[in-house]
Amino acid sequence: MRPEAAEAMTRWLARSHGDPSRIYAEGMATRVAIEEARERVAHCFGARSREVVFTSGASESIASATWGAAPRGRTIVLSPVEHSAVRESSEAFIDHGGGRLREVQVDGAGAVDVDGLRAAIDDDTALVHLQWGNHEVGTVQPVESAVALCRERGVLIHVDAAQANGHLHIDFRALGADLMSLSAHKFGGPPGAGALLVRRGLRLRPLIVGGDQERARRAGLENVPAVVGFAAACDALADGALDDEIGRARSQTRQVLTAATALAGVEAYGDVENRLPHLVCLGIEGVEPQAVLLGLDQAGIAAHSGSACSSEALEPSPVLEAMGVDAHRSLRVSVGWNTTDDDIDAFTAALPRVIEGLRALAG
Predict the structure, then answer these.
(1) Which domain holds residue 308?
(2) What amino acid positions are annotated as catalytic residues?
(3) Prediction pTM value
(4) Which of 12, 87, 161, 345 can pair with 132 through a Cys bridge, CB separation 3.0 to 4.6 Å?
C-alpha cells in the first residue's frame, strides 16, 4: 500500500466517527468524508461523483455490472481472455436465468477482434464485457472502438479496468462506456476497496440489497477507512505523478523483456508494444513454472504464473490457451509504484541462474 493511503486510513480510524446514514454530528462528518473521497476518485478516473459506486473491489463491481445489466437481454458477449470474475459471474447469471454466452476470439497476442465483436452482437445481446488490459499478458484491448460499436448498436458495455487503473490514463466520460470496474489495491490503495462507475442516467438493479446506501445501488454500511484510503491513492497520482510512474514502469518492464528474451528458450507473450506498462508475461521452455517461482522466491523475488500447478485453478491458463501459446509454462512479472531499478537488476540476475539450474537438474 502507498504510504499516503495507509496514513489516511490510520488518521480516519483514530477519529470519532459514526454511521454516515445518521444525522448526528459524527454521522454527518463520516458522510462528508465519503462524499469527498467519491469526488477524488471520480476526478482521478474522469467520472462524475454521482457515477461512482463504492464496492469491496473489482470482483464485486464486475458481478454488480453483470447482474444489474444482463436482464436487458439473454446473451452476454465476452472474450476468452477476460478475468475469471467476469466469466464466472456471467456464467452464474446465465445458469440462474437462462440465456447464453457468446465468445469473441482473440489473436495470438490476446487482442480482441472488433469485427468479431460486431458479428457477435445481436438484438438479444444484454451486455458486452471487455477488459481494458489483460491481467496475464498485459495486452491492451481496443476499448475505444468497442465502446463506439456498442453505442452504435445500443448495447451496454462493461469495461473491466481493474488491471489498467492507476497504470494508464482513464477518462470514463470521454470513453463513453456504460459501466467500469475499478480496484484500489492494484495501484497501491487498500485491499477490499473498489468502485463500479455507472454512466449517468443508467439504472441497474443492485446486487446487494437491504439498505439505501450508495444511493440505493449497493446496500451495507460503507467501509469508510478503505474508501478514504482509495481516495488517497488516487490523489498520489495527481500533478504528473501518474505519467512519471507510467514512464518508470515501462522502462523497468522493457529491461525485463530485453534481459529475459535474450535467454535461450524464453519468449514474450502478448503484445510487447501495445501493453500495460507494468506487466509482462514470459514463456519458458523446458522447465516447470512452479520450480521457477520457488527459485525466484528464494532470491527474494515474488512473481506469478498463470499455469495450473502454481495457482488455485485446476486447468491451464485459459488466456494463454485462447492465444494459442504454451499455457503450462508462463512467468508473469509486474512492477509497482515502489519497484526500484535495483529490484529489476536483482530479477535479471536471478532469472538465468534459476533457469540454468533447473535445466541442469532436468538434464
Answers:
(1) 241-362
(2) 309
(3) 0.95
(4) 161
